[in-house]
Amino acid sequence: MNTAKSIIRLAVLVALCALGLFLLFDPENSDLPMLAYCLKVFFNKAIGILCFIVAGLLYNKWCVTDRWLKKYESWIKEAEEAQL
User: Fold this and answer.
1) Residue 30: is its pLDDT beyond 80?
2) pTM, rounded to two decimals
3) Residue 37: what pLDDT?
4) What DSSP designation does 3 have?
5) CA distances from 45 to 6, 7, 17, 35, 38 (A)
6) At residue 65, what are phi and psi to the nearest 5 degrees?
């Protein structure tokens, strides 16, 4: 059961980051009026940034309890120490 939770948590984090990237870097080809176009761009970028903020908050919350995320965190710390 813990492995399934870890996989689901990783899938949620990857999905949030993928959605954020898509919304931030989506090419805007539209025939909308200028105001509607600017609002669409603004809201897409705001939702994209919000996706990354939510992913960061969830990662910080889950890395304390999740076994796979703890291991990932320890790999990052080992790599940072090896660079110094």
Assistant:
1) no
2) 0.82
3) 87
4) H
5) 29, 28, 13, 15, 11
6) -110, -25
Evaluate whether 14 touches 72 at the Cβ level (below 8 Å).
no
82 touches 54 (CB < 8 A): no
Cβ(10)–Cβ(37) below 8 Å: no
Structure tokens at 55: 């992913």
Q: How many distinct structural domains can be found in the chain?
A: 1
3-state secondary structure of 30: coil
pLDDT of res. 83: 86
Of 19, 5, 21, 18, which is closest to residue 69 (Cα–Cα)? 5
* Total Cβ atoms within 10 A of residue 77: 10
Structure tokens, 64: 């304390």
Give the structural domain span for 24.
2-83
51 to 12, 36, 56, 57, 73: CA distances (angstroms):
11, 22, 9, 10, 21
Contact 66, 8 (CB under 8 A): no
